[in-house]
Amino acid sequence: MDVTDITPQLDQLDSGLIELQNVLKPLLGDIADVSSKLPLLDKAKLYVLVSYAIESLLFSSLRLNEVETKNHAIFSELTRVKQYFDKIQKLETPAAERESTLNTEAAIRFVRSDLSGDKGISSKLSELIAKERAKAALRAAKVDNKRPAADEPSNTGDRSGQTNKNPPKKPKHGGSKKAK
């Protein structure tokens, strides 16, 4: 390859470096003044981005000079700055809700199979399960009552379109009347 073949690329590199220097000059010249006007998270982003820009330029310079960069200190610095990027990204994104829940039906099957020989404990377990299911049903009913029913008309005979805040009362007797 002839030296005259790469002169356009060198000119392009030189103009690119001058442009980069002009773009970074206001930012690097008075970075404390710029960062003092930013909120804490944005300030952290600014410092990490500036340090990453400097470290990556040093890394590129070493690579151009054919220095082994894998074992160089600049590589560990780049890794450290990338870890800061990850930490900031973790702070910016909200935590995902916990997806794993307890499969109560499976747990009940395990406990029942272990206690299948003892009738007293098995009956107490059945009572406890029935109580827990009743509590869960009450909680679900409370949640359903708290939700507004905008589409449905009131079931108390009021045709005004307003929903009834008080649910209909249930009979005090637990038994149901059988049709004869």
Automatic annotation (TrEMBL):
Keyword DNA-binding appears in the UniProt entry: no
One of the record's GO molecular function terms: DNA binding
Chain intervals for the UniProt region annotation (Disordered): 139-180
Family statement drawn from the similarity comment of this UniProt entry: Belongs to the C1D family.
Annotated signal sequence range: none
Gene Ontology BP terms: maturation of 5.8S rRNA; regulation of gene expression
Transmembrane segments: none
Annotated organism of origin: Lasiosphaeria ovina
UniProt function note: Required for exosome-dependent processing of pre-rRNA and small nucleolar RNA (snRNA) precursors. Involved in processing of 35S pre-rRNA at the A0, A1 and A2 sites.
Name of the protein: Exosome complex protein
Ranges of compositional bias, category Basic and acidic residues: 139-150
PANTHER family: NUCLEAR NUCLEIC ACID-BINDING PROTEIN C1D (PTHR15341:SF3), SUN-COR STEROID HORMONE RECEPTOR CO-REPRESSOR (PTHR15341)
Pfam families linked: Sas10_Utp3 (PF04000)
Basic residues compositional bias, start-end: 167-180
Keywords on record: Nucleus, RNA-binding, rRNA processing
Protein's UniProt keywords contain RNA-binding: yes
GO cellular component, one term: nucleolus
Cellular compartment(s): Nucleus
Segments of skewed composition (Polar residues): 153-163
Source taxonomy: Eukaryota, Fungi, Dikarya, Ascomycota, Pezizomycotina
Highest taxon listed in the record's lineage: Eukaryota
